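Pasting two entries for a bug report.
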Amino acid sequence: MNLEQPQNQGTNIQNNMSTVNNNVSNFFTNMKQNFNTMLTGFSNEPGANPQFSSSNTIIAKFAFLILVFIIFVILINLGISLLIYFIMPKDDPYVIKGMIQGSQPATISQDPNNSKSIPILKSNNQNAGIEFTWSTWIYLDDLGTSNTKYQHIFNKGDNNYDSTTNISSVNNAPGLYLSPATNELHVIMNTVSKSDAIEIIDINNVPIKKWVNVIIRLKNTILDVYINGSIAGRLVLQNVPKQNYNNVYVCQNGGFTGKLADLRYFSRALSIFEINSVVSKGPNTSTSELDTTVTSKGNYSYLSNLWYASKL
């Protein structure tokens, strides 16, 4: 990744703001000159009453000041919006954009002092309470051979994994795993309780050698899992979902046998129309900058949307 890019972007923004300031200054100067010329010409008209001209001049100047103030407020708001757009973290960031091998570990930092971090923002002022959505595409080449260890896809939390199960032992908010030696997805969500209880949804019969879109959506205490736009599992959590500020870990401890593409976070619960929009776009199979092992896009097929029709 080019480390000079943030500096170049900062220089470009500064130059653009300087140009905008100069243009605004010239605009106000020309406007004032035109106003003065108009008022001078009106005052010099034969038969113009001096008191009438003076009173109109005061009113015109007052109106001009109000106009300048309104334009100034609009420009300030526009400038603040631009700064927020370029500087503040996005609400719906791609945690991994493009494709990586399932065995390629990646850690996405949440440290704001790290220039390579991708902040995951919590939902804010949502009517239904806590909301978020995670979306990813996975392609399973094989199911693995271990009968006890889960294959790690991703989790938001920590990287302290149980030596027997390979599941994060502290934080999964959420966590997505492939069950041992079977084509079953294992979704975990921590909740706030005395024992730090975890809630689990298992999605079975996930096809191999097909691209599958997996969406994990939380709205208040309702946790939904969508497969290619169709709801495949729902769980009403018994306690309040437990979020954290820890890193996002992808394909840890050997990961899984396959590929992952377009891991994305949304700071809200997506609607069914937004979910279908994500699915219709398909996976981005170009190589992610986090993975140098993928050399070509390949020829991959997609899973039929009717696959889960029997589950509805």
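Entry 2 (this is the one that rendered wrong in the viewer):
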Amino acid sequence: MTLFKLGVYNIKHNFGRYFSYFISTLFSVFMLFTFFSIYFNKQIQAFSSGKVKVDTVFKAASIIVVIFSALFIWYANSFFIKSRKKEMALYSILGMKKKEIGTLLFCENMSLGILSIIIGLPLGAIASKFLLQLLVNIMKGSVSVYFTVELKAVIATTIIFVALFVFNSIKSSEIIYKFKLIELLSAEKEAEKAPEASKIMALISIVMIFSGYFIAYNNLLKGGSKMMYFGLLVLILVVVGTYILFNNFIVILLYGLKKNKKLYYKGENLISISQILYRIKANSNLLATIAVISAVAITALGFSFSFYMSLETQISYSAPFSLMYRSGDEALNNKVDKIINKHSEVKVTHKSNIVLIDGTALTPKYKGSYSKDLKAPFGVNIMSISEYNEIVNNTELTKASDGLGIVKNLKFTNDNQCFFIEMSNDTKRGRLKGEKVSCETLGKSFDLNIVDSNDKGVMGNNFQRTTIVVTDAFFKKLVDINKNSSTVIRGYSLDNSLKSEKLVTELKQIIPEDRYFDSFYSENAGAYRLLGSYVFIGMLLGILFVLSTGSILYYKQLMEAYSDKERYNVLRKIGANKREMRHMVSKQLALIFGLPLLVSLLHSSAALSVYIIKLMGTSKIVIKCTLIMAAVYIAIYLCYYMLSVKAYMKIVRSNS
């Protein structure tokens, strides 16, 4: 029998040991091919016009899949090879040379890798049409996707994974040269050192994690030049704190259970707690890594899904009018009206001419869009209360104002009052209430009392600016002295903005760029394309992450089951029955699978709570989406847990 045939024979007759590794590598091939297929697909490239670069997003996602797949294959393969040290020693005893054993391992790894590619590529090709259609539907597109196999995607995926499998196969074949025969034979009997942990480091881990949460809540969403530094600081504190937590705090916690004599000497706890203590310490870095990866996945999925679900409300804020532009001469306005009237698929329900006066202002507590104290006058728009209320009550904002926190039905009691709209991330409703603001326009100075303030403007992305809303009477006086310097924004509300694609396309051709034309349809299409691609990528990457991390844990437990086999044989000989052994295994694996999941849920809950409170208020959508993502993660980990318990029991109870 040749070495290649022997390798194939080993895979066939021990496929249970290879199965989890094979499925995860197969899914990695499937995922990368899917992303490459989307990246090279001409229909998707058609979505990448203008500001929205969907193909760039998928290119970045493909790089993430390659990096993660490389790390996963290397990690899982190292576990698998360690579990086979005794098998390699037996080959050596039977007369096989080191070179032959190395070649055998190389053939086994390459066979699995090639099999993953051979099966993964056709599966990806079959599924790509359905996944592409799903992507188009998520992006609210109206394109019908046709079946195609992207040759570039096939070549790129094959080259990358062949390179990964060759590298790992070479590393696997080299292991036989690194150990002596006696070391390979006694690999499963290596003495375990008593776990050590520091109480000071345990305390530091808790302080670091909660300090990260505190900084995120108080500083991360303020904006400004320091936001990146705060973000990096939070990341370092939470990630490093998590590693220290698993290496120290959890170990000390288990030592505490050991000191509880009533609990420790109850039933099989005497054995199981000690076993868990050693296993947690031995796997601490792995568990911390899985906790961090899972936290990132759950947070990203919860954020993207919730933002996607509330996108229509957010788009109303970006483009309150169905159509809007900076008004020009009457000839342009008449031409626009003529084109709108020509399109029977939509009907104008309201038309506005919003007058904005340019000015400067100064008020002590205002920090501006970069959260810096503004000691010099800053630019503002001044608008009338009637036009403010007109926008809120007659545009897309009407149905979205509650979700956005827009102030409705604004009222003043005298002409020296104003409503202040801040352009800042660090603000709350009414933060500037009671303050005075000094304003100036065309040399005319005046002071106003701020009766209320908010950070939600009503002029859309193109015309959003720090704004002061004043009474109609006071605004009329300002208009009289600013007749030639005021700006008029022309806005149209349609009965169905989403049916205005043809109209928007035609208007873009006649309205000059310096008029800053924008439409609800364009903002809606762009937002759904971009966020839809994020949701799609997040969904697939989330599945990849949970399958890969679950597989790594599963593999690690199988490896430990082989090393624990003798211990359980001794327990069986002294009277432990199947139920008691299963109970011990279940408790041990419950902590191994449960602890990283629990910590990841804590991290993601903290991150998303900042998002809910700071950006969206108490949002049911965010909570609902996060709970769904967490439930899916828990369900998949529960499946891996049950498979691990079953496989673990099968190994420790087998006679061979």
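Dev reply: Rendering is fixed now. As a check, the viewer should reflect this: The chain has a mean pLDDT of 80.
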